[in-house]
Amino acid sequence: MYINLSMIKQIFKKSYIEGTIQSKSLKALIDTGATYTIVSPELCNSLGFIPSKEYGIIEITACREIIKVPKVIIPLLELDGSIIENVEAYISDTGFDVLIGIDTIGKLGFLHKTGKLKVEY
After folding, report:
1. Which of 42, 52, 55, 87 could bond 74 through an S-S bridge, CB–CB 3.0 to 4.6 Å?
2. What is the dihedral of CA 84, 61, 10, 43, to 10 degrees?
3. Selecting from 3.10.20.30, 2.40.70.10, 3.30.70.100, 3.40.109.10, what CATH number does the domain 16-107 have?
4. Regions of the chain with pLDDT less than 70
5. What is the reported pTM?
């Protein structure tokens, strides 16, 4: 079986949700395999988010590499009509504006009390 580019685009198209941070439009990728929410350095710079020593730096595994990433707090994140305040995110280049990890997915109400993920399109 061959998978062509249009099939891949359709798969990823369903993985995105639209949102805003400080009135700046963005597309966020939902990644149920990611522990943390990651925000791009470019987006942080454009919004003036500066990592603080008080927030700390953590080590994460990305593409089989351990990298150190600084933490920022996003004061207000709106995703597909849901608003989340004080989102903990880490700065790294993933190729996306924001990569939504399981930490934020839970706050969006996608997790049932059983801890199982429920995603509806």
Report:
1. 87
2. 50
3. 2.40.70.10
4. 1-15, 109-121
5. 0.76
